[in-house]
Design goal:
Layout: E1 16-23, H1 27-38, E2 43-48, E3 56-62, E4 69-74, E5 92-97, H2 102-113, E6 118-124, H3 130-159
Antiparallel strand pairs: 1-5, 1-6, 2-3, 3-4, 4-5
């Protein structure tokens, strides 16, 4: 009898959808517009850095347990250096975590495309874009770092 092995293959970033955005707006302007049209509350957090020299704007909105989490991440540093280049030209990634219906995703994309000064917006195919995994991993580590810092702050308050 031949033994069969079962393999469990897990995608590293399940339930993540990414929208690439090309715009002339500054990060805070785009975040304000996204908040307005999507009725969310993106807030600016410490910038993402992977080499202590280049800093990339980072915004987060967590809609709560069992709901979506949204990130807006700049792909261009404050000094103008690109984190990674995409084709078509992409200045920001709008990341949606947790399950979202395809119709809702397409609605979000259409709303983003209608924002003034957004030149182009598109759904990034995460299954065939090898650059995206590295970026998503860096962002996930950044979020863990932010959570650890927040935890340390809170534990310091509780010790008093």
């Amino acid at each position: 009898m031949v033994k069969r092995k079962n393999k469990l293959i897990v995608e590293p970033f399940d339930d993540i959808r990414v929208i690439g955005i090309n715009t002339s707006m500054m990060d805070y302007q785009l975040a304000w517009n996204l908040n307005k049209v999507l009725k969310i509350d993106l807030a600016k957090y410490k910038s993402v850095t992977f080499n202590e020299e280049d800093f990339f704007s980072y915004y987060l909105y967590d809609a709560g347990e069992n709901a979506n989490t949204f990130n807006l991440v700049s792909l261009v540093s404050t000094e103008g250096k690109e984190w990674v280049s995409f084709k078509p030209k992409t200045d920001y990634l709008f990341i949606i975590r947790n399950y979202i219906k395809e119709t809702d995703l397409l609605h979000i994309l259409a709303v983003i495309k209608n924002i003034s000064k957004v030149f182009h917006a598109y759904i990034v195919d995460t299954s065939c874009n090898n650059k995206i995994d590295i970026i998503l991993e860096d962002i996930e580590f950044h979020e863990i770092e932010l959570a650890n810092e927040e935890s340390k702050k809170n534990s310091g308050i509780l010790k008093r």
